[in-house]
Amino acid sequence: MLIRSRIGARTIVGALALLATVSSGAADKPQFLNSxxxxxxxxxxxxxxxxxxxxxxxxxxxxxxxxxxxxxxxIVPESRQTLTNVKHVLETNGASLSDVVKCxxxxxxxxxxxxxxxxxxxxxxxxxxARSALAASGLAMNARVELECIAYVPxxxxx
Length: 159
Fold this sequence. Notes:
With 159 residues, the chain is an alpha+beta fold. The chain has 4 helices and 6 strands, in the order αβαββαβαββ.
C-alpha cells in the first residue's frame, strides 16, 4: 500500500511538472530586446535579454545618448550617466531599479569605488541588490565605469 502511494504521488508530481513545462511554451525562450537607439547603433550585442522572470542587462557605460560621448569630469558624472542609462533600459523593458537583484561594477580604477558608491546610493535604496565590484582595464570608449545588472521581473499570467 505504501509503495502505491509513493508511485501515485510521483505520477501526480510528474504530471504537474509536465503540465507546467508544456503550458509555459514560448515564454521560456529568451527574448532579445533592443531600443530604437540600440538598433540604430547596430552594436554586436542586445541591450537586454529576458529569460523567464529575469531581465539581463548588457553592461552600460556613461555614454550620453544625445552626444554618443562620455560626460566630462571623471567618475562622478560618468557614474551618474551610467546609472541613468541602466534605469532607462530597465524602464524601457517594464522594470525599475527596485527590481534589480544583482549588479556587477567594473571600474577602470578601483580607487574610485567610494565615489561610485556615493552616486550608486542616489539611484539604489535599501535593501540594495547583491553586487560585485572589480577593477578592469580597457573599458569601452575608455570609460571609468561599466555596470551590468540583472532584474527579477515576474511575467504576468496571460490566462
